[in-house]
């Protein structure tokens, strides 16, 4: 079970005051990277993303990200298709569309601002 908001606030206040004792084992950056690679990271997913981009290049020739293309709508459509079919190909396409939107998107307020709102993937 996750922490309650008041637990998180108390921990932040104690940490600021230097009174929070962290009993978790300290990991090196290499240990942390190895753990993430073992438990979360998926090289096959990235390979599929890259392969799809290569196939697009072979099919359609050299081109840059389409100006005026609605990648956000394309992501929404692929999510709906994945929910309907369970075909993980849709997730690969979502990854590519998200990457293109990140680098070349035309949202009028596009920016990167890291946020930690303690809201993560919902449980089933």
Task: Provide a brief overview of the structure.
This protein has 124 residues and is an all-alpha fold.
What keyword list fits this structure?
elongated; 124 residues; mainly alpha; 0% strand
Description:
The chain is mostly helical. The chain folds into two domains: 5-39, no CATH class; 43-104, no CATH class. The chain has five helices and no strands. Helix 3 (43-60) packs across helix 5 (89-104). The two termini are 14 Å apart.
The helix/strand series, from N terminus to C terminus, equals HHHHH
Can you tell me the overall shape?
elongated
**What distance separates the N and C termini?**
14 Å
Radius of gyration: 20 Å
Give the number of helices. Answer: 5
Strand content: under 5%
Number of domains: 2
Structural class: mainly alpha
Oligomer: single chain
- Spans of at least 5 consecutive residues whose pLDDT stays below 50 are none
The strand count comes to: 0
Largest sheet at a glance?
none
Fraction of helical residues:
55-70%
What is the element layout, followed by pairings?
Elements: H1 5-16, H2 29-39, H3 43-60, H4 71-85, H5 89-104
Helix pairs in contact: 3-5, 4-5
């Amino acid at each position: 079970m996750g922490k309650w908001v008041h637990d998180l606030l108390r921990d932040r206040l104690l940490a600021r005051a230097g009174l929070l004792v962290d009993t978790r084992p300290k990991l090196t950056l290499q240990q942390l990277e190895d753990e993430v690679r073992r438990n979360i990271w998926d090289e096959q997913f990235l390979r599929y993303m890259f392969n799809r981009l290569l196939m697009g290049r072979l099919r359609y020739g050299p081109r840059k990200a389409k100006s005026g293309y609605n990648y956000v709508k394309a992501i929404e459509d692929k999510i709906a298709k994945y929910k309907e079919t369970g075909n993980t190909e849709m997730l690969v396409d979502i990854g590519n569309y998200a990457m293109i939107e990140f680098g070349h998107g035309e949202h009028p307020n596009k920016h990167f601002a890291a946020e930690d709102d303690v809201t993560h993937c919902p449980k089933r």
